[in-house]
């Protein structure tokens, strides 16, 4: 299958691209459905409960056959010495943020694809390789991918990673919300199943939002009066509760405007005016830069803001 995909790419490079993009853009926009189902899945992350054990990283690694490293590797706390981002071998990473007012109690934040309700990566993909599934998961089909990496530039959370170390058949890599486990096997996502203090609650997004607001109302002294992901970039399937200002624990300040409104405008003009690929990168990058908050590294935090840099996640 991988050789087929490479062959597919070579055919494109040889000249079929002239006719394919128009069809692909059409296919991509057909795949793109920003309708929000009441049944769409979600995950509520309570960062006040997370103990930074990194077992979620281990479970994700195992369930997706990533590095195959043993649990002990993930138990090392030296991973918290630097900011880490997801990469081709790590679909989720946990970062630590020290609290200057309470040095004994840092906050741990698990990162992964947010599974946006209206995903910019899906919108930016010319060939429908990234898909918004009916249950709300955003998945990737390596066979269709032509390696343009527009999804990487378009994602407001800088999630998709590229297999640079695989020169023959590189893939875009990211959390798939354990799509097969959830839909075919009826299991919980691997990270939620293993989490010892159960700070990851899997369920319908609409019900998780209710739970989140009930928790805030019942414990206003414990929680910030905000559910991150409820409105950001039009809403995300992964939702977060926090006991500290979100901006102090690595969350980007993003408005509620869905990014595809912007990326689709760019993509449509690509075909209309034949904009060269390099300029598309520039336009997408400038658009993403303009919507992000470019805060500096917060003093007292172990990690920089989310989306700062892609670095290796292993020790
Ligand atoms: S977080 Fe990024 S990769 Fe994940 S669905 Fe949203 S746009 Fe796509
Ligand atoms: S939902 Fe699945 S793929 Fe995503 S971080 Fe959790 S274990 Fe990994
Ligand atoms: S398994 Fe749960 S408690 Fe442990 S780091 Fe992951 S989210 Fe936090």
Give a structural overview.
By secondary structure, the chain is an alpha+beta fold. The protein has a single domain, classed as Alpha-Beta Plaits. 32% of the residues lie in helices and 11% in strands. The protein has eleven helices and nine strands. A hairpin with a 5-residue loop joins strand 4 and strand 5 (138-140). It starts with a helix and ends in a 24-residue tail after the last helix. The model is unreliable at 1-32 and 294-315 (pLDDT under 50). It binds iron/sulfur cluster (3 copies). One iron/sulfur cluster (SF4) binds next to helix 3 and strand 3.
**Basic shape:** globular
CATH topology: Alpha-Beta Plaits
Order the strands across the largest sheet as they lie in space.
8-1-9
Summing up helix and strand content along with how strands pair, one would put the structural category as: alpha+beta
Q: Kindly state the mean pLDDT as a whole number?
A: 82
Instruction: Indicate the radius of gyration in whole angstroms.
Output: 19 Å
Largest sheet: 3 strands, mixed
Order of helices and strands: HHEHHEEHEEHEEHHEHEHH
The CATH architecture term is 2-Layer Sandwich
> How many runs of DSSP E, i.e. beta strands?
9
